[in-house]
Structure to design on (354 residues):
C-alpha cells in the first residue's frame, strides 16, 4: 500500500493466467465458455490475446475510505470482479473525512492526468464532482459512476451507473418503521454535504406522512460523523428533548451503532425503535438480538463488482449496459437476518465489516 498525503492508494487484483480470461468472463455472466483451439485445457490464441489486453488495462477506482465498513464491502466486490476477470486495478480514497472534498478532488484530477483506460468513481457530492466527471469524459476516459450520482451520470458523460435510487431507500425505511409501529421518526443525516442523504430523509418523511406519521431530521456535521461519542451525545440529547420520538433512522451502520447506545443512555430502550440504511456485522447481530429492528441494504458488494466489471468490459470490448444497475434497497429484519448472518460468516465483510 502507498500513501500520498491524505490519500490512500492500493493496487489490487491479479494478472490473469492464460486460462483465466474466458473463464472469468463466463463466471461473471453465469455461463460456460467454450472455444476451439484448446491445448492442455487452455484456449490458445483468443484467450491469450484477451488475457494480455486485461493485464495491460489501467483501471482506477475512486471511492470512500476503507475504515468505513460500507466501502470495505464495496471493495470486496471490486476485488471479486478483478479476480473473475483476471485483472488488476487501483483503489484510491481520501484517508481523512474532514478534508474529503478537496482530497477527493485532488484524487480525481490525478486520475485524469494518468489517462487510464477507465475510472470507477463514487459521485458523493455532485456539485463538486460533476464537473470533474465531465472533464474525464471530455478527455476520452470512460467513467463508471457507482453508489451515488444517479441523476447526473448521463449528462456527465459516464458510460454507466451502478447504485441505488435514494428515494427508494428512504421510502423502504419509512415503510419498515411504520410496520414496526413508529409514528414519530428521527432521521439522522450524518453527511449533509451529500444530497442523497437528505433525499432519503425526505422520502421517509413522505412515506410516514401518508400514514399520518412525522419525521424530524437531525443533521450532524460530516466532520463529527466519525466521532462515536459526539454522535451518541447528539442523538441522546435530541431524544431527551423530544419525548414524542418513538423511532430513529440512521443512514449509516456506524451511526446505527451510536444510536443503540444513545437510546440506552436516554433510558428509551423498548420505547424507541431503531432502523438503518446500510449495515455491518454488528448491525446484523443487533437485528438478531432485537436492538435494531431493520436495515435497508444498498448491497455495496454489487456496486463494486459491477462497477469494475463494466469498466473492464468497456475498455476491452466497448460494450456496456444502457440502463442503470440498481442494487438497493433490500430490507433485512428478523425474518431473514439469520440467512444473511450465515452468508456473512462464510464470506466475512461481504455485507460490511464491524
Amino acid at each position: 500500500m502507498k500513501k500520498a498525503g491524505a490519500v490512500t492508494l492500493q493496487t489490487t487484483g491479479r494478472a490473469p493466467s492464460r486460462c483465466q480470461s474466458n473463464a472469468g468472463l463466463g463466471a461473471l455472466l453465469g455461463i460456460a465458455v467454450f472455444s476451439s483451439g484448446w491445448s492442455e485445457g487452455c484456449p490458445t490464441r483468443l484467450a491469450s490475446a484477451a488475457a494480455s489486453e486485461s493485464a495491460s488495462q489501467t483501471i482506477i477506482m475512486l471511492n470512500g475510505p476503507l475504515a468505513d465498513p460500507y466501502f470495505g464491502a464495496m471493495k470486496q466486490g471490486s476485488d471479486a470482479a478483478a479476480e473473475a476477470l483476471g485483472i488488476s486495478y487501483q483503489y484510491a480514497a481520501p484517508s481523512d473525512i474532514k478534508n474529503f472534498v478537496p482530497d477527493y478532488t485532488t484524487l480525481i484530477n490525478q486520475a485524469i492526468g494518468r489517462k487510464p483506460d477507465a475510472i470507477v468513481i463514487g459521485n458523493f457530492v455532485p456539485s463538486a464532482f460533476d464537473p470533474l466527471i465531465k472533464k474525464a469524459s471530455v478527455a476520452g476516459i470512460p467513467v463508471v459512476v457507482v453508489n451515488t450520482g444517479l441523476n447526473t451520470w448521463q449528462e456527465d458523460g459516464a458510460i454507466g451507473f451502478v447504485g441505488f435510487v435514494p428515494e427508494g431507500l428512504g421510502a423502504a425505511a419509512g415503510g419498515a418503521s411504520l410496520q414496526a409501529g413508529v409514528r414519530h421518526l428521527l432521521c439522522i443525516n450524518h453527511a449533509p454535504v451529500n444530497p442523497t442523504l437528505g433525499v432519503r430523509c425526505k422520502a421517509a418523511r413522505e412515506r410516514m406522512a401518508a400514514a399520518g406519521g412525522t419525521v424530524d431530521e437531525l443533521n450532524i456535521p460530516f466532520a463529527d460523523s466519525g466521532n462515536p461519542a459526539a454522535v451518541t451525545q447528539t442523538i441522546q440529547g435530541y431524544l431527551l428533548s423530544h419525548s414524542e420520538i418513538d423511532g430513529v433512522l440512521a443512514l449509516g451502520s456506524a451511526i446505527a451503532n451510536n444510536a443503540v447506545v444513545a437510546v440506552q443512555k436516554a433510558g428509551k430502550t423498548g420505547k424507541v425503535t431503531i432502523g438503518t440504511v446500510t449495515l455491518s456485522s454488528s448491525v446484523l447481530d443487533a437485528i438478531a438480538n432485537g436492538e435494531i429492528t431493520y436495515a435497508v441494504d444498498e448491497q455495496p458488494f454489487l456496486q463494486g463488482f459491477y462497477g469494475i466489471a463494466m469498466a473492464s468490459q468497456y475498455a476491452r470490448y466497448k460494450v456496456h449496459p444502457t440502463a442503470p444497475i440498481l442494487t438497493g434497497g433490500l430490507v433485512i429484519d428478523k425474518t431473514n437476518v439469520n440467512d444473511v448472518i450465515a452468508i456473512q460468516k462464510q464470506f466475512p465483510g461481504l455485507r460490511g465489516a464491524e
Q: What stands out?
A: Residues 1-6, 14-51 have pLDDT under 50 and may be disordered. The first helix runs from residue 20 to 29. The radius of gyration is 21 Å.
